[in-house]
Amino acid sequence: MKTANKMVADKADGACQLHNVQFYNLLPRAIVCSAFGQLQKKLAQARDDGTIEIWNMANAPFLEKTIPGGEGISIEGLAWAGSRLFSVSLAGTLIEWDLGKIPSVKQSILVTGNAAWCIDVSKDERLLAVGTEGGYINVYRLDNDEVAYERILDKQEGRIVCCCFDWTGNFLVTGSADAVRVWDVRNGHAVHKMTTGRSNRNQETTVWAVQVMQDFTIVSADSRGKLVIYDGHMGTVLEQHVVSSADLLCLAQDVERNCIFVGGVEPTIRVFERIKTRHHHNGDKQFVRAYTRRGHTHDIKTMVASGRYLFSGGLDGSLLVTASRPVTVDVHFPLLPSPSSRVVRDCRLILLKYVNYLEVWTLAPPNKPAQGGTKVLQIRSKNDEHIVCAAMSSNGRWIVYSTEHTVRLLRYDYNREEPVQSRLLRVTNTPEQLAVCYRTDFTPDSTGLFLFDRTGEGTINFFSCTAGDSEEWDHKQSIDAGRWLSEMVHLSAVSSCNRYLVCADVASSIVVFERTAESKWKRSISLPRYKLPPTAFAIQPGQTRLAVAFSDHKLFVYDFDQFTFVFSTYVKLSAADHSIGGIAFDPRHESALVLQNGPKILSLRYGPEIEEEMLQHEERSWNKRQRPLMNGSTHGNGGGGGGEGSLTKYKLRTVRDAPRLVAIEWLVENELVATQANALSMVEHLPAAFRKKAYGKR
Questions:
Q1: Rounded distance, CA 376 to CA 397, Å?
Q2: What 3-state class would DSSP assign to 472?
Q3: Predicted TM-score (pTM) above 0.90
């Protein structure tokens, strides 16, 4: 449903109408596997539709790149070797991904043993192992940016479900049905076979996950709900812990704190710490259950640890980032890459992008919330391919979307009075340059179209719609943006005057392109480069000011016509574990911003009057603290640092909490649109969650 609420603001701002869009019915996409790259602090995770997401975890997490999946694609394992990313699938292929400008397959290798179920890279990153359905373990050597075949270990009966190298790289531990094996990688033979036993004589025990600690202690999690500790040198069982009555599916290891995280069908993460107990006088240590972490609603399928942070995912599709001491829980819902919604101002419509289809809905007229929230159009992609990007022109007449293999330009004759009488036609006479892309934008006057080419050369193709009855789209220019943007463009915006195009890439380059009198686009300026990539930006309507937010919550407003910083600061946010995912300039106030910070909508005001007010407040607070001391000591005033000559003080307040917030965007001067994913659609298609009967309750 869609509602319109009053958003209370300061007197200087006044009140505005908030369109709370809650009919974005995204489905949950389970996270099946993940891997953390320590070198670049990046998390790779695969979903059940074959999509691979690359998250930047160096500061506040944000989704950096996405590799689209498709029908029948199944990613079963991921592994990093430095900055190189590998995956295995049920198709029996080992794939190395090129994570350059446009993520693509760098090389694909067929493994021996049919479907591949698991993958691991040795700690020194010189060996890679793949476990298969046929019981073969394929070992490859990683040298000089190549993948070279090393050997196949002795064949075993049954599927290799999981594998993990020891800390020397000379031994590999695998889990399968009823057994954990230790392999000597140097000669290809099994050194130890440890049988797990069965809880039911007729039902085999599946070892779902294994981990190897620095002293060659092996930890396994299996379908009996047991955590088993082995001595890797001797091949004997040291400890057994009954953790759950359901399957244990994944393990993670915190090397610094010497503890193990366990997760499975029961949606609770349990932590076992290795400590010396009073019963062990010879220096031996034992695993003891320490505490639990909660946040998931369904099966936990994958976990990886880095420092004090634990990244977990599972059937509910949410990425959970938890930390200890102090304990924090940060949930990232399974949303699609931004932008996944577009507000169509002239027609009061909104375009919503799903995995393989698009929807167009109406927005309510001012002060009439009951008249909005009607779906008027749905477009499915060809062959149900994953939609990479989509856009709709401001006048509502043109819709463009692209998959990895197809691009479509459509003309939509919207009948506002009788939506069922609207017509949708495919534009067939398009220029050859109108090809597949990874990002697209219309100009605000609906006569220009930008397509960001997928070839990896950094080209932006610009098209213009001819006036008159024919309304044909002509290719006007190929902008060589790759000269200034070395990486994939993940943020772009066109100014309201149709004169400027601003692009930012994940390598922290921000470039402004200007439209000349001859309707040609040329680079105007490259903004000062910051040490971290931007997570959101916006151009102020009617101004040459650009607001940019970064992953460490650095925020500045830069005038690219005057080449000066207007405002620069580090924003102190209550949802500090979330990046600033969206910025919208308040059209009613020159020095006001609306920010999207995780599940919160924030209002930020700056300016000379705010600067003076905050400085006076700080001075009064400082005098109150100093008055009782009277000891002659002096301390400097810790004002916020920014660009030279720029404003640094601000007033920040929470407008409202908006769980599963997707985007914020102004519709008109007094109407703000906040798009949220429907909470019900994310859970109603999930299977029943694990239930554990509590004592004394039915």
A1: 14
A2: coil
A3: yes
Q: Which of helix, strand or coil describes residue 613? A: helix
* Beta strands per DSSP E along 232-318: 236-242, 248-254, 259-264, 268-275, 286-294, 300-306, 309-314
Reduced DSSP (H G I as helix, E B as strand, rest coil) percent helix, strand, coil of the chain, to 5? 5, 50, 45
Average of per-residue pLDDT across 208-216: 95
Q: Which residue has the higher pLDDT, 464 or 468?
A: 464
Residues of 372-392 as b/e, b for ≥16 C-beta within 10 angstroms?
A: bbeebbebebeeebbbbbbbb
- Three-state DSSP state, 484: coil
Please choose, from the candidates 127, 94, 128, the residue with its C-alpha nearest in 3D space to the C-alpha of residue 112: 94
Q: How far apart are CA 222 and CA 250, in angstroms?
A: 9
DSSP sequence for 180-224: EEEEETTTTEEEEEEE---SBTTBPPBEEEEEE-TTSEEEEEETT
The answer, yes or no, to whether residue 638 has pLDDT greater than 70, is: no
Of residues 9 and 496, more confidence is placed in: 496
> What distance in Å separates the CA atoms of residue 224 and residue 691, rounded to the nearest whole number?
16
How far apart CA 465 and CA 475 sit, in angstroms, is 9
> What pLDDT does residue 124 have?
93
pLDDT for res 577: 84
Instruction: Please state the φ and ψ torsions of residue 672, each to the nearest 5 degrees.
Output: -110, 135
Q: Give the single-character DSSP code of 508.
A: S
In terms of Cβ atoms closer than 10 Å to its own Cβ (0-12, 13-18, 19+), residue 21 is: buried
Q: For residues 15 and 8, is the Cβ–Cβ distance under 8 A?
A: yes
Q: Both ends of the chain: CA-CA distance in Å?
A: 35
C-alpha 74/C-alpha 87 separation (Å) is: 10
Q: Is 636 helix (H, G, I), strand (E, B) or coil?
A: coil
Burial class (CB in 10 A: 0-12, 13-18, 19+), 652: middle
Find how far residue 639's CA is from the centre of its chain: 33
CB crowding 199-218: b at 16 or more within 10 Å, else e = eeeeeebbbbbbbbbeebbb
Q: Which two tokens stand for residue 174?
A: 């695998």
- The strand pair at 286-294 and 268-275 is best described as antiparallel
Of 15, 21, 28, nearest in space to 3 by CA? 21
pLDDT of 228-277, one tens digit each?
Answer: 999 999 999 999 999 999 999 999 999 888 899 999 999 999 999 998 77
- 227 closest CA partner among 192, 186, 185, 270: 270
Cα–Cα dist 242/224, whole Å? 8
Contacts of 101 (CB under 8 A, 6+ apart): 456, 457, 458, 482, 486, 487, 488
SS3 for 564?
strand
**How far apart are the C-alpha atoms of 42 and 63, rounded to whole Å?**
10
